[in-house]
């Protein structure tokens, strides 16, 4: 324990910088991926013939190893291998690939009679989507976002292998000096970030679905 505190105190400035970098590298792709997945998930839900092929293609993207993605994207984007934009782009792709199906499934989970009631009240297709389908799909979509956020928090660490400066460097440092202290600190920080992301998304999901609390009570 003393070794952990000693290492943390000696390297606090650098670790604090790595923590901030890790936070935005993990958070930005979740938001960007969700924004991209919402319209594409709606298309996959709206046009059922496209659902299977589109979801299958996204599943293939999600199975590409993250290290391969970090190495290939610089060639495709014309960026330097150490550029953080490669990490953001890769994790955005993973988030998008995961959430497209989640959004489609969330929209499909809305009961047909609920949509029929909305239509009978004069709601247009667009109004049904924005005021009925999306709000009712929030719990399903929120669950997918939680998975994506926690996954991103862990995948960021892999980028340290290609030299991206973030908390994953603690694992490299521990391996280089033969010490468990930085490795344990890295694990603690990444688990804490993942849990924080998960808690924030749970809170946002509950705020967006106040009727769930009312029904439960």
UniProtKB/TrEMBL annotation:
SUPFAM superfamilies from the UniProt entry: MetI-like
Record field: transmembrane: 20-42, 54-73, 85-104, 136-163, 183-204
Compartment list: Cell membrane; Membrane
InterPro entries membership: ABC_transp_perm/SBD, MetI-like, MetI-like_sf
Superkingdom of origin: Bacteria
Family to which the UniProt record says this protein belongs: Belongs to the binding-protein-dependent transport system permease family.
Keywords associated with the record: Membrane, Transmembrane, Transmembrane helix, Transport
Domain ABC transmembrane type-1 residue range list: 19-201
Gene3D superfamilies xref list: MetI-like
Its membrane topology: Multi-pass membrane protein
Coiled-coil ranges (or none): none
GO biological process: glycine betaine transport; transmembrane transport
Gene Ontology CC, one term: plasma membrane
Principal subcellular localisation of the protein: membrane
Record's keyword annotation contains Transcription regulation: no
A Pfam cross-reference name: BPD_transp_1
Annotated organism of origin: Streptomyces wuyuanensis
UniProt name for this protein: Osmoprotectant transport system permease protein
């Amino acid at each position: 324990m003393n070794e952990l505190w000693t290492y943390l105190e000696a390297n606090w400035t650098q670790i604090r910088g790595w923590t901030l970098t890790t936070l935005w590298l993990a958070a930005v792709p979740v938001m960007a991926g969700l924004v991209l997945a919402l319209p594409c998930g709606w298309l996959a839900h709206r046009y059922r013939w496209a659902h299977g092929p589109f979801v299958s293609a996204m599943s293939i993207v999600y199975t590409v190893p993250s290290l391969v993605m970090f190495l290939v994207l610089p060639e495709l984007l014309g960026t330097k291998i150490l550029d953080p934009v490669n990490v953001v782009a890769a994790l955005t792709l993973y988030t998008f690939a995961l959430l497209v199906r989640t959004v489609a499934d969330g929209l499909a989970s809305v009961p047909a009679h609920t949509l029929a009631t909305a239509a009978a009240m004069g709601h247009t297709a667009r109004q049904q989507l924005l005021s009925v389908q999306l709000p009712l799909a929030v719990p399903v979509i929120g669950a997918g976002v939680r998975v994506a956020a926690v996954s991103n928090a862990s995948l960021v660490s892999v980028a340290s292998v290609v030299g991206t400066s973030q908390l994953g460097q603690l694992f490299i440092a521990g391996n280089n000096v033969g010490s468990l202290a930085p490795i344990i600190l890295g694990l603690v920080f990444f688990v804490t970030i993942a849990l924080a992301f998960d808690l924030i998304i749970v809170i946002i999901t509950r705020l967006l679905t106040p009727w769930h609390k009312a029904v439960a009570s």
